[in-house]
Amino acid sequence: MQNGIRNKGKNTVETIIVSILVIIFFVSTVLMYYSMLFYEKRDNIIKDGRIAAQVAAEKFEQYMNLNSNFIGFTALALDDMIEAGRSDQEIQDFMEAQSMGVKNVTMKNTTGLYGYIRGKFYSGTDWVAPDGYDATERPWYKNHIKNNGLISVLEPYQDMQTGEIQLAIGKMLSDGESVVSVDMSIINAQEMTKNAVENGNIDIEMVLTGTGYVVTHSDENEVGKNYTEETGTLGVAIYDTITDSVQDYYELEYGDRRYIIYVAQLADSWRCVSVIDTTSIYRQLQIMFALTIVVVLVMVVIIVFIMRTAGKRGIMVERALDENEAKNKFLDEKAEVLRKTARGLSDNEKEDIRELGEKLKELSEEMQILSGMGDDRSEKGRGRFYSL
Predict the structure, then answer these.
(1) Which of 186, 210, 229 is at the close of a domain?
(2) Which residues on neighbouring strands pair with residue 334, listed in sequence order?
(3) Which of 6, 70, 223, 349 has its CA 20 to 30 A from that of 250?
(4) Could you give the maximum distance between any two Cα atoms of the chain, in Å?
(5) Gap between the Cα atoms of 55 and 264, Å rounded
(6) Angle between the 279-342 and 376-386 helix axes, to the nearest 10 degrees?
(7) Helix or strand or coil: residue 215?
(8) Model pLDDT for residues 180-189, shown as the tens digit of each residue
(9) Which residues span the domain enclosing 262?
């Protein structure tokens, strides 16, 4: 009986262990599958987004380089004219000719060349500066002088001639005092930014200066803002994220949205920033993961139910065997008593006992049939009894 109890406990422990192992196996499989699917999808997003961001950055950089090259060639020509002692009128005629050329070839929305050369302001479009206008106090002059002969693109500023926000590309000349510059309207750059969103796998496109000024943005309402002067906006969160470290892409959670940010470095610490909203993509993966977990849990419940049912049947079998063994033991004891008694009986009395044994045998078989169980232990007990 004690063996039966031990076996029951052993079966229960085995059932629990197997159930736990099955649950661990299925959960591990699901987590592994989801992890592989998540990172594969994430890598595909990063790859596609990086390509789209690089294309957008290259287009903007080509546009800027084209105008930078124009300023470079113009500056070399002016250096030669200054060294050769050309007259003010010759310089003015050159500025007008170059302004006409740049309008026809690269920048239709430009105001043309202008500069401060040999102590005098020149305009390639014959713009007459208002009274009190001091070119040396204007941002374009100060910043180009500060860059010490390097071609530079200044942060957008309001042009005195048109009142529009312009980008000034210019260079200090070799005499260390003269400057030539050209204004580039952000209209073309803004159009390129909007096209990057419309034609690519990008949700937000922008160009930022090193100080956080928004030069162009796919949302025109953001143009002209400075993200270092704002708080609590997506633009600020993006700027802070890309400023904290130097890498080509970043991941950002803002509110209930998730983003991947790509950064391409431009000249003068400017950056072309491309942003992809991955919320809906990852949400699909999360829904798939939740459904998979539900399916696994249902499977685990079914498996546990089957194991518990099998365990209960095993316990019932064990109980039946224990009861059968107890009955056999009882029969063995009675048979032994009868043997001892039979040694002093007559033949007729022995015959009566044999008949009683036959009846007990039939009764035992009926008991076996009713219980549906039989093993070597019951056969052994009956054999000993009927060998009388």
Answers:
(1) 186
(2) none
(3) 223
(4) 160
(5) 10
(6) 10
(7) strand
(8) 998 877 777 8
(9) 47-58+188-283
